[in-house]
Amino acid sequence: MATQDFNFLLATDSYKVTHYKQYPPNVSKVYSYFECRRRKDAQFHEVVFFGLQYLLKKYLAGRVITEEKIQEAKLFFQMHFRQKVFDEDGWRRVLEKYDGRLPIRIKAVPEGKIIPRGNVLFTVENTDPDFFWLTNYVETMLVQMWYPITVATISREFKKILAKHLKATSGGLEGLDFKLHDFGYRGVSSQESAALGGAAHLVNFCSTDTVAGLLMAQRYYSCPMAGFSIPAAEHSTIISWGRNREKEAYESLLDQFPTGPLAVVSDSYDIFKACKHIWGDKLKERVMERSEDSTLVIRPDSGDPAETLLEVIKILEECFGCSLNSIGYKVLPPYLRIIQGDGIDLKSIEEILVKLSDEGYSAENVFFGCGSALMQKLNRDTLNCAFKCSYVESNGKGMDVYKQPVTDPSKGSKRGRLSLRKNSEGFIETVERGAGKPEEDMLVTVFENGSILQDYTLEEIRKHARLSEEDISPPQHNNDELNGLGIHHKHIMNGVH
Predict the structure, then answer these.
(1) Alpha-carbon span 304 to 168, nearest angstrom
(2) What pLDDT is stored for residue 103 in this prediction?
(3) Which residues pair with 324 in a beta bridge?
(4) Short-list 39, 34, 10, 21, CA closest to 479
């Protein structure tokens, strides 16, 4: 559905249409917040905040209420509920008083910031007492922030692992931003998922095949070209030559792309024979003619990832040799590398890199591609994302409100007006009950009465999300206990964006 056809009044859970009738009499303010709840058993203890600007620009900014859309929603909800529950008069007042712009204020963490779980990430409140019911009407859409936040967080976890092993086996971080390639376009649920997830990955890396993510970064985050790719073969372009002409298929690729990097999937039949007898024998001289700027990247795509990759690199070493880098790890010739894009997740990538280093190989030799584990094998509970009301005003008086389920203390919510600050020890914490000092508040007003007040570029966001020295020093990984407290670092390692 194109943006111009989007009806904001219909972009909510059905029951929210009835909530304007349910608040206490004389309520004039509803204030709510979004967080990734902290859990002791959580895999991740800190999150990358990303994606709100896209949602605001595409769906909430400007004149989103019109008489035509009011009438469309009135008819729809009459049919849906089979009774009159739609607040036609309330929405028309928004149209008449604010020209269809939403009288709400959203304050949020700057995009790209790394925040320990359990802290407020953004707040929402109505700016006009007549429209208190608007605050939680937008919950449905804004909670979909869980997706870009989760993808950006997982992508950054990959980056931590890759940085740790790259530094340990090469002495530096050269090429880190290209070590994880986004293969996720075809594996997500929609074009919009591809755009959101693809752009979230680009907060941390510059390597992708997900065009939708690049377009989102271009259109909503002012980045002309956020990521890069190279010519690459797929199985159809290899097997269409026939099994007996596998060598000709590879040779044709070398002819068609004589300069620049080239990736060739080589497991259509037998990856080990392809590496040993075709790449390492029949086409060996052609491969060796290529330069560091025209690297051949061989891609296994089946079998156990760690075992297959290790066997492939051993065969390539036997055929082409290896040199030792400055700290004594083996590196294939600069014209030859490997990319493993099958079966990659946080666990397998760690296993592969450990096995390589145990065998004396540097992480310089390999690139990785990831699809479903990066973009699709996740949900709102991966980071326990929640949106809750914490403060209301009635008859001119404020009241802190909260939930505290006896059956699940982890679902207890925060109380009062919230702010986010760094405390005297440098740790990020949420201040509840309106006790925070405005000058210390990390939350920035990004949206008010239909207008975008803050516009982040991807370049700024990438700077916020950079790894620090502590991020790549064992055992500081997100899935280590209490790592969320260790994110405030002075020494930035990879300021390449």
Answers:
(1) 24
(2) 98
(3) 330
(4) 39
